[in-house]
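Lab notebook, bench 4. The sequencing result for the construct came back, and we need a structural model before the next group meeting so we can plan mutations. Quick request posted to the team channel:

Model the 3D structure of this chain.
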Amino acid sequence: MIKFNNTEAIQALVYNSGIYPESYKSLSGDGTFTEFASKIISKKVGSISTLLTPSGTAALEMAALLTEVGPNDEVIMPSNTFSSTANAFVLRGAMPVFVDCMPDTLNIDVSLIEKALTKKTKCIVPVHYAGVSCDMERIMELASLNELKVVEDAAHGVGSKFKDQPLGTIGHLGAFSFHETKNIICGEGGALLINSDSYSTPAEIIREKGTNRSQFFRGEVDKYTWHEQGSSYLLAEQLAAFLVPQLNQLEQITSERVKAWEYYYQELKNLEQTNKITLPTVPSYCGHNGHLFYVLLDERFEREKVISDLKAKGVSAVSHYVPLHSSPAGKRYGRTGSSMEVTDRISQQLIRLPLYFGIEKTTQDLVLDGIHHCLNR
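Done. Here's the predicted structure in token form:
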């Protein structure tokens, strides 16, 4: 069965890296490898600082704490995203306001954000779907005019850019994911990108169970104590070690994924020209990272039947998100801020094709043969 992840290529890259520090500060977190990985990320993307976390979800939860959202606050976000985007703010008592997505990029429709603003709006959370950037220039302008905070959910966006700026570094805060389904992986893991000096110290305190422990270890205070709300948001040192060699070769990993993405795109153009599918759109302002490849089936096709036929041919093609606004929790904790026509439609048409670092063209050809056969019958 052709699936979505091939960890062998990543494992070989990690185990052959030859990176062995002379001494280890810690095994539990904030040790030698955490320091390495954090510095590499900050250097490559240009964030003020980077804090490794146990997951992208944890990074978003920290962002919710830092933006001080709470009961009676509203947070604007797309419905075409994973539950973590909403949960981080729901846990603080805030209400997600779901806005429809663009029919081309499947990112949040910026023209609908302004219409969804109320006096309760405190934050905008753009999600860079499939590693393709939202229109961050317009989002940041809108946020500035209305004195709102912007938290970039860049779980898909490691290695992607808006114009020349890496995703995750444009908003006030950014969140990466290193889940095994992402471009850079460590099983479970993430990072919070700090893009404003005002968040640097509070973020350290939140991450260290609400204490000023980091300042203590730097010799800035003579003892540490509980200062604020927080939790245990440190990534295990062994997982940080798994990240370092991948981060050092981020450009190579991104390049190979983009090549595989482009091969799918070129080989499926004929199906788009015959109106059987719609291919992904990458705007000129976006440098994407080949995170995932999806197609939108024409309405004449029954998606579950196509997925079943592909599975019979040994190809694991799957759907993606159930829109948050239509989910039980979305109805209970959030509300819609616009018509959700596009989100509802694409959620019934989208299928993802296998794409991972190390995928071979012969494997892609098997996938392509399968989808051509299914849609041309």
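The chain has two domains: 7-248, 250-376.
Will bring this to the meeting.
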